[in-house]
Amino acid sequence: MIRFEQVTKRYPDGTTAVDDLSFEVAEGELVTLVGPSGCGKTTTMMMVNRLVEPTSGRVLVDGRDVAGVDPVALRRKIGYVIQQVGLFPHRTVLDNTATVPALLGWKKAAARARAAELLELVGLDPAVHGPRYPAQLSGGQRQRVGVARALAADPPVLLMDEPFGAVDPVVRERLQNEFLALQATVRKTVLLVTHDIEEAVRMGDRMAVYGEGRIEQFDTPATVLASPATPYVADFVGGDRALKRLAVTPVTAEDLDPLPDGAAPTGDPRSVPLGGSLKDALALLLQDDSGQLTVTGDDGRPLGTLTPAGVHRALRRSAA
Ligand SMILES: Nc1ncnc2c1ncn2[C@@H]1O[C@H](COP(=O)(O)OP(=O)(O)OP(=O)(O)O)[C@@H](O)[C@H]1O
Ligand SMILES: [Mg+2]
Prior knowledge:
This protein is α/β, with parallel strands linked by helices. It has two domains: 2-246, P-loop containing nucleotide triphosphate hydrolases (Rossmann fold, 3-Layer(aba) Sandwich), CATH 3.40.50; 250-319, CBS-domain. 38% of the residues lie in helices and 22% in strands. Strands 6-7-8-3-9-10 form a six-stranded mixed beta sheet, with helices on both faces. Strands 2-1-4-5 form a four-stranded antiparallel beta sheet, with helices on one face. The two termini are 30 Å apart. It binds adenosine-5'-triphosphate and magnesium ion. Magnesium ion (MG) binds next to α1. This is ABC transporter ATP-binding protein.
């Protein structure tokens, strides 16, 4: 859906922001771009909607080189959540959310109705928050408005530049979860920029780890954590990468020990579903001394038990 072909961007002052970049984002996929400040993430994103033009190489959206697409028409199909949210301070939250539909020439009532629907989708009450100005919202609420505004015209592609950057870790995790739940239904093709490795791992179907102007590794979070491609990536993902992997590794049937003889515990509060994360399982395991958990299937029936040795096996297997 989005394809970079050997893209280089040199700014007029000689700064090479992005150097020979090639990667592809599939339809409905969420790819995170992660790396330190100044490594070229925003520049990459802005070449998709032509806010920045490549010096060489091509960017294709839906099979078409964007260089040949009218920027206005292009941006109608691409929602954009900018770094620092960027709401208009003198417009109400409802009107901010209706910006793109209004630009597209929708009737005012239709644009506002759509905006109200979107505010609800991101967990804001249009009656309460809609008439307010951005300064009258919390940081997390403003970021939700940014996401609602980007989704308002129902674009197939979404660019999000540090969309949850300006809030504390607790609110950030809530916004991330809400967005993942939303994405599970709207299935946009998403590029999400962050400098936070935890966010990149948690949100990405795949992730691009940037060094200076280059992608050092492009793969699933589980693979990046298990097998960093370069010493730089290993350093960037952190010495605790094995722990981070717990969050992206599911409990599978192979990791289980048989159920104890005769025992068929149902409704056991100390149980996790097959396919749940090892992180959740380990957190439960550590809560008492029994050293085992029941793992249940889709129908809630117990399938087997998970022990610390099983957690270890699962991590080893997923690294292989
Ligand atoms: N208009 C410009 N003219 C010259 N250099 C620029 C321009 N915009 C960005 N740069 C430089 O290009 C490099 C990449 O910038 P970019 O904004 O893409 O980084 P980033 O990865 O988004 O960083 P951050 O995490 O701080 O937002 C930086 O060295 C930056 O100083
Ligand atoms: Mg940036």
